[in-house]
Write a structure and sequence with these properties.
Radius of gyration: 22 Å
Number of strands: 11
Helix content: 25-40%
Number of helices: 11
Strand content: 15-25%
Shape: elongated
Largest sheet: 6 strands, parallel
Order of helices and strands: EHEHEEHEHHHEHEHEHEHEEH
């Protein structure tokens, strides 16, 4: 394989601790920490390989003809930031990375659930703000918390991540309900899952069918006091409706790692809720354990090497 011209558009999203030296071994590497929209077209013009995570690609910033990049390597499983039809029109291949972050996302999902069920933010605050020391009692047991064993955990999206969460939830003693778009034996329909679950975590891709799938009606159908955790994409939920359900007390807790606009702005519905003790908001980091990011980089290299050998590894533009 001849040396490649490789461009990374948003290296900052991969973390400063992850070395890009393996890419340098394959050709000429130009890595940008971030790429504002007005810079994308020029930066990818003439590239053999473009690596990106969150940068949006569409007709307006894809170069024409020979200047178009040969392959886009998405540094993620989800690729809703890339207009596949536009890539097909421009003759640009697109490959994603699958399964690299299952353990990482499952770990943070379970961490959020345990934190919210056990009210860990509230208990930690009681020590950090001095109340425990001033109180003179050997313990603080407010707010009361309950064992997760025996609860019902509903999992929306039963791919690798959702299935891994189900495995851990089962070990913790939960009854698990799994819902997937295609249904089938052993899976629960969404209405039943919403009505019966104490904890609901979302792991489904963002598609036209899943956009806004958890809205006002779905929230109303949940148990009072249920905990909702979104690890999928922000737009899978109606975020304003979720915020209202939390503020009204319908939801007992909220854990979110993804937002319809990232980073979340001060005008986001969740911003006023961010300091509540029953809210855990994280900065889209659940996928990013060091091991997962290193695995992602290696998988992208395998994708680009396969492409230049004429293979179709992880190609999403061919679907």
């Amino acid at each position: 394989m001849n040396p490649l011209k490789i461009v990374v558009l948003d290296a900052a999203t991969l973390g400063d601790d992850l070395s890009l030296a393996p890419l340098e071994a394959l050709g000429t590497l130009t890595a940008y920490r971030t790429s504002p929209p007005e810079t994308v077209r020029e930066r990818i013009s003439g590239a053999d390989v473009v690596i990106l995570n969150k940068v949006k690609i569409h007709d307006g910033n894809l170069p024409d003809g020979a200047a178009a990049p040969r392959i886009l390597c998405e540094a993620a499983t989800g690729y809703d930031n890339i207009d596949l039809d536009a890539c097909r029109r421009h003759g640009v291949a697109v490959a994603n990375v699958r399964g690299y972050s299952s353990n990482s996302v499952a770990q943070i999902t379970v961490g959020l659930a345990l934190s919210l069920v056990s009210h860990l933010p509230a208990y930690c605050a009681s020590v950090s703000d001095g109340r425990y020391t001033r109180g003179g009692n050997a313990n603080i047991l407010v707010p009361p918390y309950h064992e997760i064993a025996g609860m019902t955990w509903g999992i929306v999206g039963a791919g690798k991540i959702g299935s891994r969460v189900a495995d851990v939830a089962t070990v913790l003693g939960c009854r698990t309900l799994l819902c997937r778009r295609s249904g089938g034996e052993g899976y629960t329909d969404l209405a039943t899952l919403l009505a019966e679950s104490d904890i609901i975590s979302i792991h489904t891709p963002l598609t036209p069918e899943t956009r806004g799938m958890i809205g006002t009606d779905e929230l109303a159908a949940m148990k009072d006091g249920a905990i909702l955790i979104n690890m999928a994409r922000g737009a899978v939920t109606d975020e304003a409706a979720v915020a209202e359900a939390l503020a009204s007390g319908k939801l007992g807790g909220l854990g979110v790692d993804v937002y319809s606009v990232e980073p979340m702005g001060k005008d986001h519905p969740y911003y006023p809720l961010r300091t509540r003790e029953n809210v855990c908001l994280t900065p889209h980091m659940s996928w990013g354990a060091y091991e997962a990011r290193a695995r992602c980089l290696n998988e992208m290299i395998l994708n680009m090497q396969a492409f230049f050998r004429g293979e179709e590894r992880c190609r999403v533009d061919l679907v």
